[in-house]
Design goal:
Layout lengths: L4 H23 L7 E5 L6 H17 L3 E5 L6 H8 L7 E6 H10 L10 E8 L3 E6 L7 H10 L5 E5 L4 H13 L4 E5 L2 H9 L5 E5 H9 L3 E6 L14 H4 L10 E6 L4 H15 L2 H9 L12 H22 L5
Parallel strand pairs: 1-2, 1-3, 6-7, 6-8
Antiparallel strand pairs: 3-10, 4-10, 5-8, 5-9
Helix pairs in contact: 2-10, 4-12
Length: about 325
């Protein structure tokens, strides 16, 4: 069928308009719409606190909303898996932590690869843990406490949080390094675990500084060591585990931003810049440090350094987790 000349001209104009609109859409600078930051844990925890502070700062830098979405379950693997399967366009990212991007690959059967299915954006923060004992513990420092554990095998209890969690692994390493034996008692969260140490129902645990510092300063628990290589601004009075006499028991619960793999490098660069600038804002930095976070230097916040850091952590911790036979049920 032969169309009249006027209709042909209308169709041609319409096609040209569609092409122009398509080109304009492609040419829009990133970000052109809101970004979703998946926090793969329930609201209220340290990861959620960091995510919300980070999102608020990043959206100011990027000029678009950064919406935090909490997707909890299976120690962060459900929300992390959603990002692994998301479109690689920069509009979905995950605030992953040591659990989600190191331990879960060994303790869970994942349908994604914690390295190959993600594009690193930036290392955001690190949070060492504090080793605490109940206030009636017969010890004034870590060395005294280890001596008491040796003299009383299988009589003490250690609260742990989650299968393959940092607390469980540190407990296993501590028992091995000190040649002591104690019972591991699993808890659903750090809050209840610390509360039972405060109440004297549990002898000891490792916990983040934000959770445990108020109790330590009130004299409700004894803070005997910090799992970082040096003391932190939030708790300068607590010695490191090295200083307290147990060398090598070092750990930081780090948090970092990751995008789906194949996300364009220019988009990664914009997200990285927004995150780094946010974290080095003096007010935001002070707020996070008061929660016990340690903010890495700018040199440690590149995608390349994050990728290398994750690799080192995997090489260190996977053999330890496997040797301990830790598996999620």
């Amino acid at each position: 069928m032969k169309l009249p000349r006027r209709e042909l001209m209308h169709l041609a104009a319409g096609a040209a308009g569609l092409l122009a609109m398509s080109h304009t859409a492609r040419a829009q600078p990133f970000p052109a719409r809101p970004i979703t930051m998946i926090v793969p844990f329930a609201p209220g925890g340290l990861t959620d606190v960091l995510g919300r502070v980070l999102a608020a700062g990043m959206q100011t830098v990027l000029g678009q909303s950064v919406v935090v979405e909490n997707v909890g379950g299976a120690d962060g693997s459900i929300g992390t898996g959603r990002v692994a399967r998301a479109a690689p366009d920069g509009y979905t990212m995950v605030l992953g932590i040591w659990n989600t991007h190191v331990a879960n690959a060994v303790t869970y059967r994942l349908d994604y690869d914690v390295v190959k299915d993600f594009a690193p954006i930036a290392l955001c923060a690190e949070a060492p843990l504090v080793f605490v004992a109940k206030k009636s513990a017969p010890a004034g420092d870590l060395q005294d406490y280890i001596a008491w554990l040796k003299a009383n095998p299988d009589k003490a209890s250690m609260a742990t949080v989650g299968v393959g969690s940092p607390v469980q692994l540190l407990a296993i390493l501590m028992a091995k390094e000190t040649h002591t034996r104690f019972t591991l008692v699993p808890y659903r969260g750090a809050g209840p675990a610390v509360q039972d140490v405060v109440a004297g129902r549990i002898d000891m645990t490792f916990a983040n500084t934000a959770t445990v510092l108020p109790f330590a300063r009130a004299g409700s628990v004894k803070a005997l060591g910090l799992t970082s290589p040096k003391r932190i601004a939030a708790a300068p009075e607590i010695p490191t585990m090295d200083e307290a006499g147990l060398r090598g028991l070092s750990f930081s619960l780090w948090a970092a931003l990751f995008a789906p793999r194949d996300t364009p490098t220019d988009i990664i660069a914009k997200l990285n810049s927004a995150a780094v600038n946010t974290l080095h804002d003096p007010d935001i930095r002070r707020k996070l440090e008061a929660q016990g976070f340690v903010i890495p230097s700018r040199e440690r916040q590149t995608p390349e350094v994050l990728a290398a850091y994750q690799k080192v952590e995997i090489e260190k911790w996977w053999p330890i987790i496997k040797a301990a036979g830790i598996q999620a049920q």
